[in-house]
Amino acid sequence: MTSRRTELLLTGALTAAAVIAGATHRHDRQRFSKPIIVPSLLAGALARSRRRRSALVVAGAGATVGDWFMLRYDERCLVAGQTDAHRFLRLGAAGFTVQQIGYSALLAGAGARVRPRVAVPVLAVLLGLAAVDSAGQDGPDPVLVGYGLTLAAMVSLGIDAGGPARAGAALFFASDSAIMLSGRLSPGSAGRRAGEAFVLLTYAAAQALLLGALAGTE
Predict the structure, then answer these.
(1) Which residue of 3, 73, 105, 195 is 20 to 30 Å from 21, comparing CA positions?
(2) What Å distances lie between residue 3 and 8, 9, 33, 164, 165, CA to CA?
(3) Low-confidence residues of the chain, pLDDT below 70?
(4) How far is it, in rounded angstroms, from Cα 144 to Cα 90?
(5) What residues contact 64, with CB distance under 8 A and at least 6 apart?
(6) CB–CB of 44/84 below 8 Å?
């Protein structure tokens, strides 16, 4: 219990540091906080469990890579005249696709199933958000579409699993939905900063719940 409490306190501190850095327009300082959230949670989960270690490590690595590139995406969005921000968004989505596949495999292995009554509404919301996010562009990005499908699968499986996994999946869905909505706001605006804070808070909570549940420690 003490190690778990320490792990959650560290996660809270890292999340708070990332939120403050974003609120003060110092996204470069998030490099020392946001990309460490998942590795710290993963280390704690692996220390308490001997099950599913390989899949957890692969999924956690995907999330860490995704965090790094999403951080680069946020930084590039704040620089006027930069046209390569979308490339970092695609790389971040690719990293998180690995995470969602890993989490989905672990959830399915534990008995969770994709239920139409959950999957259909989740996909409908994601399609609506994707339509808003891609407005004015040539069309949906295949990398982002692929990520959206894996996200929908993980969320559906997590909700079916119940317990902490259900809460974690729901929070992850809320976090990613907020990314798409806040992305339509002007970089550096108060609304954008509030959206980023919401994204970070829900993301960290989701990862803590999901990793704990998937490692069999929740």
Answers:
(1) 3
(2) 9, 10, 20, 18, 20
(3) 1-2, 50-51, 78-83, 132-139, 183-188, 217-218
(4) 7
(5) 35, 38, 39, 95
(6) no
Residue 16, burial from CB neighbour count under 10 angstroms (0-12, 13-18, 19+): middle
Give residue-wise pLDDT tens across range 67-84.
Answer: 999 988 877 776 655 667
Q: Would you list the domain boundaries of the chain?
A: 2-214
Give the pair of three-digit tokens for residue 63: 């999330």
* CA neighbours closer than 13 Å in the CB half-sphere of residue 18: 28
Where do the H-state alpha helices sit in the chain?
Answer: 2-23, 37-48, 53-77, 85-109, 116-133, 142-161, 163-182, 190-214
